[in-house]
Design brief:
Elements: E1 2-4, E2 9-10, E3 24-30, E4 38-39, E5 54-56, E6 63-69, E7 80-81, H1 87-99, E8 112-121, E9 133-140, E10 169-173, E11 181-185, H2 191-199, E12 205-208, E13 214-217, E14 223-227, E15 232-233, E16 246-251, E17 254-256, E18 266-267, H3 271-280, H4 282-303, E19 308-313, E20 318-320, E21 328-331, E22 337-341, E23 346-350, E24 354-361, E25 367-375, E26 387-388, E27 392-395, H5 417-431, H6 448-460, E28 464-466, E29 469-471, H7 482-486, E30 491-497, H8 505-518, E31 522-525, E32 535-546, E33 549-560, E34 569-572, E35 577-583
Parallel strand pairs: 2-6, 19-25
Antiparallel strand pairs: 1-5, 3-4, 3-6, 7-8, 8-9, 9-10, 10-11, 12-13, 13-14, 15-18, 16-17, 16-30, 20-23, 21-24, 22-23, 24-25, 26-32, 27-32, 28-29, 30-35, 31-32, 31-35, 32-33, 33-34
Helix pairs in contact: 3-4, 5-6
């Protein structure tokens, strides 16, 4: 029968307005005054004309109570209404959603909109209590709000009860230390929602360290929940490896494998010890510096920061930068023009049509950059291509082909993401009919055959305990091929890696080539503090061209994260490990 709710038990809480921007209200229902209590999602209840909630409930009597969770006692808001989200974050999220409607390649983001509430996410380098990231939850746009629907497209939010609430998320940055968009998914719960469920509380602070490691903390800074593996400590001497890339190959004829580095990462004694190292160590400082440098071109595009343009004609000497005394210069494409330093400025003669970056050194040692555009007489420099290209996609099947395996508990710690990634890859080949890698047809979720595969691979790849997590060093990861060898299958495995935290174009391209050229998924390495190995089965890229110069790229892998039944996620293609496998 339908009832208008009568609250027989009400929790009252005074919430100082200076401490938080919102409170979370939780509605619960029971057949008896003493419980047991069942949560009633408010978005499933219709609203009457006079603003009451109407519940359909078959029992003769229903009892209701409300729990109220404010911002934490430390004064940090739990959620932010969309209208209060910083303009920069809202602009990034709105533009990203508009531009990326087709990135999934399967209409996963068709008729999607930003939800009415966003979540603040923090970076533990700042002590001012201000979020440095904003997480937008994505919800379905109801028919009357869809283009071509029964009503006109509106700019206002629809009532939440008419929306599918689990269409993924967009995590955007408010600091140029990271890319404008750092993470997103086209389906499922948000990272914040998953962490709050794990912590069994909404009154937690969400802290992000990297692509895989996020933490739910209480007001004391203690970890109540996490995504990704626990971090391991890399000593400062490993910095000499930051710019080194190692590659290897193995098949039935033998191994071609470089020597491993002469250091071993070690688990941290505690979460507190890790946080201190994350702030202070030279390793993480260098990693953050590299991440800022990677993000710079993306912010230039988003904010429209480009060098001044200089236009010259083919075969016509032109004096440029006449108000500058120039000590030296560099033209990135020297075929474009001949250049001579003058008493003031440069004499530039175009040789061929095109554009290139020109860097000049001033007397005080500072440098300035310009875009040199060379055109034919009568041609306009504006005709040089400018803007984002269309997206290009490559796929190794789809989510339906992926096996949703998880780690196994080994008594002291979990089996680790490395062995799980290998098992999911074998399961993919098994499911496609290439091999019989998992006994019988590879199941969708873990069973005894999957466990056998995982526990065979764990010692082969040298997985060790880092707290309750299983950690695998990148120089040992390739050894998972021995499972195929033990079962009499043919195999060909190649890989590139560098230290976690430091991306490698060779690793990215090795994984991309597996998806693009072979139609096979690829094991990749993501994250920094909590290095993680997901299985990538999709790759998408586009480039931004400014006056003919390629200024920035967007590159993403679509990943099976190896977290059991969790939804797939798109991850930045700034990876430090990339592996191409083939089995028969």
């Amino acid at each position: 029968m339908k009832k208008t709710l009568l609250f027989v038990l009400v929790a009252l809480l005074m919430v100082p307005s200076a401490l938080c921007t919102t409170s979370l209200l939780r509605l619960e229902r029971s057949d008896a005054p003493g419980g047991p209590w069942e949560e009633v999602p408010a978005n499933t209840l219709p609203i009457t004309a006079d603003g009451k909630l109407q519940d359909t409930y078959e029992a003769a009597t229903g009892f209701y109570r409300m729990g109220i969770e404010p911002g934490g006692e430390w004064g940090i808001p739990l959620n932010i209404p969309l209208e209060d989200v910083p303009t920069l974050a809202l602009d990034i999220g709105t533009k990203f959603l508009a531009e990326m409607q087709d990135i999934a390649g399967d209409n996963s983001w068709e008729n999607v909109m930003l939800g009415p509430i966003a979540s603040p996410v923090y970076i533990p380098l700042f002590d001012d209590g201000e979020p440095r990231l904003i997480e937008f939850k994505l919800i379905s746009r109801p028919a009357e709000f869809q283009p071509g629907g029964p009503g006109p497209l509106q700019d206002v939010l629809p009532p939440p009860q008419v929306c599918n609430q689990d269409r993924g998320f967009i995590l955007v940055s408010l600091t140029e230390n990271l890319s404008p968009v750092v993470d997103f998914a086209t389906e499922g719960l948000t990272r914040t929602e998953c962490l709050r469920k794990q912590a069994n509380s909404s009154a937690v602070v969400i802290v992000r360290y990297d692509d895989s490691f996020m933490v739910a903390e209480n007001e004391k800074g203690e970890m109540l929940g996490r995504t990704g593996p626990m971090p391991v400590h890399y000593p400062e001497e490993c910095l000499e490896y930051c710019d080194k890339v190692f590659g290897g190959f193995v098949d039935e004829t033998g191994e071609q494998v470089p020597d491993p580095p002469d250091f071993e990462p070690k688990p941290y004694e505690s979460y507190e010890a890790f946080k201190k190292d994350y702030r202070e160590s030279k390793f993480f400082q260098e990693a953050r510096k590299r991440k800022r440098e990677e993000a710079a071109s993306e912010w230039d595009v988003f904010l429209g920061r480009f060098p001044e343009g200089i236009n010259v004609l083919v075969k016509q000497p032109t004096l440029v930068l006449q108000d500058l005394q120039i000590e030296a210069f560099t033209l990135e494409d020297p075929r474009l023009a001949t250049i001579q330093i003058q008493r003031m400025g440069l004499l530039v003669t175009g040789v061929q049509v095109g554009s290139s970056l020109l860097h000049v050194v001033l007397p005080d040692g500072s440098t300035e950059s310009y875009i040199l555009v060379v055109s034919e007489p009568g041609a306009l420099s504006a005709e040089q291509p400018t803007g984002w290209s269309s997206w290009t996609y490559y796929w190794a099947g789809n989510w339906g082909n992926q096996r949703r395996y998880d780690q196994e508990w080994g008594g002291s710690c979990w089996s680790g993401c490395g062995a799980t990634a290998w098992a999911m890859d074998y399961g993919w080949f098994d499911n496609k009919g290439y091999v019989n890698a998992i006994d019988g047809v590879a199941p969708l979720y873990n069973n005894w055959a999957v466990r056998n595969c995982i526990w065979y691979i764990v010692p082969q790849i040298g997985t060790y305990c880092a707290g309750s997590s299983g950690a695998t060093n990148p120089w040992n990861m390739y050894k998972g091929y021995k499972w195929a060898q033990s079962r009499g299958h043919g195999y060909s495995v190649s890989w590139y890696w560098t230290l976690p935290c430091f991306s490698s174009s060779s690793a990215r391209e090795r994984a991309r080539d597996s998806i693009r050229d072979l139609g096979r998924p690829a094991i990749i390495g993501i994250g920094c503090t909590g290095a993680h190995y997901p299985l990538a089965y999709g790759y998408a890229w586009q480039k931004y061209t400014w006056l003919g110069i390629t200024w920035s790229y967007n590159r993403w892998f679509k990943c099976n994260m190896g977290w059991g039944g969790s939804s797939p996620q798109w991850k930045s293609a700034s990876v430090w490990y990339g592996q191409k496998n083939n089995f028969w």
